[in-house]
Amino acid sequence: MLLRLAASRSRWRNAIIQTRRWFRSEDPQAAQSYTARKNSWYSPTILFLGFIPVFTFALGTWQLQRLQWKIALIDELEEKLQRDPILLPKRVNLSVVPEFVYRRVLLRGIWDHKHTMLLGPRVRDGSHGYHVVTPLVRSDGSTVLVDRGFIAKDFVKSFARGEDGEVEILGMLRTSHTRNSFTPDNKPSEGTWYWADVDAMADYAGGESDNVQPVFIEQVFEGHSGDAASWLSKGIPLGRPATVDVRNAHLSYVITWYSLSAFTTAMLAGLVMKRRAQNRARPLPR
């Protein structure tokens, strides 16, 4: 009995020794390694994060070019605004009017109050109201449209219509306003004007038969803030300041798109590093 137990113990000891030798063997067939399942480099997440930085960088570059163009445009308009006022010819060449936008002009004539239009509603310095657009019959017989300025809504029925005799005004040449998708249609028959449609306004004031030209002038107010408050309180149309009001928000767009490009690039780099670490071969744990 004792001999059988000794023989069994000897066999177990030899088996354990052989197993240990096998694990410690330098035989390449014996020394095996464990490789984790490799994740694909073409997953939807990686493809999406690879596209977004390129796309947003291109948008940022495009907005940078737009910013440079807008700055040049504003500088050009500012330069026009500083030039001496000009006198309009009897017949204005409408095709060149866009080239003279923001040019100051001097006008003399008589107000045609019968065809006055209220443009709005508008807001100025927190006050709600309308702009008064009145045709001006010039001494040469031609008529142009003049946006005389802002009045509060309390004076819609009683605003100061101005002198009946000849007046002289300083204004700026403008074109029709750009209408957005939320602006309602004008209703000339009801005297409702939401946006400056110069051609329609000229037709309302008499059209070509009455020698009304679709030329739009915004009257300039050159007084100080005290005068402006006094005019508003008395219902006198208050003209606009002689400034360029072209909106320029391209710098914020440049910052937004470039920041998004940098952020998504960092996300992509982090994901690539993580995926590379996951795909490395790992030794079989002992």
Outline of the structure:
This protein has helices at residues 2-23, 44-81, 198-204, 225-234, 250-278; strands at 34-35, 86-87, 104-111, 117-124, 127-138, 143-152, 167-174, 212-219, 281-282. By secondary structure, the chain is an alpha+beta fold.
Explain how this protein is built.
The chain is an alpha+beta fold. 37% of the residues lie in helices and 21% in strands. It has helices spanning 2-23, 44-81, 198-204, 225-234, 250-278, and strands at residues 34-35, 86-87, 104-111, 117-124, 127-138, 143-152, 167-174, 212-219, 281-282. The strands form two sheets. A five-stranded mixed beta barrel has the order 3-5-6-8-7. Strands 1-9 form a two-stranded antiparallel sheet. β5 and β6 (143-152) form a beta hairpin. α2 packs antiparallel against α5. The chain starts with a helix and ends with a strand.
Descriptors:
alpha+beta, 286 residues, 37% helix, elongated
SSE map:
Elements: H1 2-23, E1 34-35, H2 44-81, E2 86-87, E3 104-111, E4 117-124, E5 127-138, E6 143-152, E7 167-174, H3 198-204, E8 212-219, H4 225-234, H5 250-278, E9 281-282
Helix pairs in contact: 2-5
> Could you tell me the mean pLDDT?
84
Strand content: 15-25%
Structural class: alpha+beta
Provide the spatial order of strands within the biggest beta sheet: 3-5-6-8-7
